[in-house]
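So, does this match?
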Amino acid sequence: MVVPVATAARMADLGLVDYAAAYALQLGLVEKRRGGTVADDVFLVTEHPGTFTLGRRGGRENLMVSERFLQEKNIPLVHIERGGDITYHGWGQLVVYPILHLRQAGLTVSAYVACLEEIMIGLAAAGGVTAGRDPRNHGVWVGDKKLGSVGIAVRHGVAFHGLALNVNISLEPFTWVNPCGLTGVRMTSLSRESGRGINLDEVKNYLPALLTQVFAREFVAIERKHVDVSIHKQDNDGQTEVAQAQFADRPGI
């Protein structure tokens, strides 16, 4: 699927970022994009430490373990406004959050979701895995196993949230839920389906070309320290500084 849009967009690789910090950054960019202080679409590329999120449809009934169990694992449970049910983010999962003005991009919501799915299908193919769509649920699948998920929200015409593609993520936490509210569905990863160790850096190498192809626009890379995408906090004196959102260690489940 190719979208007839010629304007450039920016892409920032944030690295490994706490979910709450990335969410706050999205909300800020949505308001700036809506108000015009950020004039172009921004695609945030990231990865999160273990986090369960609940979408607009809720999904707590699809959590098969107790919240105390999650607390012991140091895995937060976060309610957000994206579409969909419960899902998991963790180390080894590629997450892309486009902050995208749908009207200016000439996209309907359904066409935009199809674009996000097309990106994941292309990334899977680059890793030697054949993936496709399934009428049961948005996202991408390998046979009856789900490889990647899509969940978006739209505020004043600006889309946020996005896609999550399992690369070399631990699949154990997905067994603690009915993923995306679907019973009897197994999750999978590119590493499992390809039979070899695929890491995020390898997959990220294919991302710029696929974004250009699917969205038919130029993508300009910006540093994660750029003022538009840096993660901020306030100190005791009210001064704003860049927070240390990168995580050096990747502890196991």
Remarks:
- The chain has six helices and 14 strands.
- Residues 2-6, 233-253 have pLDDT under 50 and may be disordered.
- The longest helix spans residues 109-126.
- Residues 79 and 201 are 29 Å apart (CA to CA).
